[in-house]
Amino acid sequence: MALELFGSLTSPYVRRVRIVASELGVETDFVDVTTTEGQAALRRCNPLWKVPTARLDGQELFDSAVIIRTLIERFGPGPLTPQASSNLDLINFVTVVDGALDSLINAFYLGKDGVTADEGGYVHKQGQRAAAAMTWVEQRMTGGRWDEPDSFGLPEIALVTSVGWMRLRNAYPIDRHPRIVAACERHAERPSVAQSRPPA
């Protein structure tokens, strides 16, 4: 049965699900929530009105991490580099990447409403938090999987999708972190990554 995925083509969290589904060979029916019909369908499905939302075998799933975990449990890891649920270093890595991304998303949407870092202490703090997080991430990208060009799993997917969104929205000067940039470039032409790249 196909995965019904509610989202937008620019959401980094939706993109993560699209990448994992592609890697696992899971057929996906995409519902674009930027349309009136898609937004109405999302609101009928998820009381949080949040993307990504998915439906698989009649079960509704309300978060990217839950959707991805369900896909891997259902279909196996496929070509993705497996990750033990007890690997706290990688769990922390993804958590920090997500924290940086969430801070920048908050600042981006506040900026669209006219609240800037100059005007609001909260927005300024989000930028500082993202910078501290990305510095921490880069410091941990030495040895192990980061020196193996064929390693591609959930940490790499988190990084690629977050950096892609940062570049799309010009939300963070990611070029100050050359190891992160190099890791993302290593996977840029992987079919699941290239095909899910957000429109400019």
Lay out the secondary structure.
Layout: E1 3-7, H1 12-24, E2 28-32, H2 36-45, E3 53-56, E4 59-61, H3 64-75, H4 88-112, H5 121-139, H6 154-168, H7 178-186, H8 191-195
Parallel strand pairs: 1-2
Antiparallel strand pairs: 1-3, 3-4
Plain-language structure description:
By secondary structure, the chain is of the alpha+beta class. 54% of the residues lie in helices and 8% in strands. It has eight helices and four strands; from the N terminus they run βαβαββαααααα. The chain has helices at residues 12-24, 36-45, 64-75, 88-112, 121-139, 154-168, 178-186, 191-195, and strands spanning 3-7, 28-32, 53-56, 59-61. The chain has a four-stranded mixed beta sheet, sandwiched between helices. A hairpin with a 2-residue loop joins strand 3 and strand 4 (59-61). Helix 4 runs parallel beside helix 6. The protein is globular. The two termini are 32 Å apart.
Put the structure in a nutshell.
The chain has 200 residues and is α+β, with helices and mostly antiparallel strands. The chain has helices spanning 12-24, 36-45, 64-75, 88-112, 121-139, 154-168, 178-186, 191-195, and strands spanning 3-7, 28-32, 53-56, 59-61.
Instruction: Please count the helical segments.
Output: 8
Overall 3D shape: globular
Helix proportion:
40-55%
pLDDT averaged residue by residue: 95
* Pattern of helices and strands: EHEHEEHHHHHH
Unreliable stretches covering 5 or more consecutive residues: none
SS content category: alpha+beta
- The spatial strand order of the largest sheet comes to 2-1-3-4
Tally the beta strands.
4
Supply Rg. Answer: 17 Å
Cα-to-Cα separation, first versus last residue: 32 Å
Sheet having the most strands: 4 strands, mixed
Strand content: 5-15%
Quaternary state of the chains = single chain
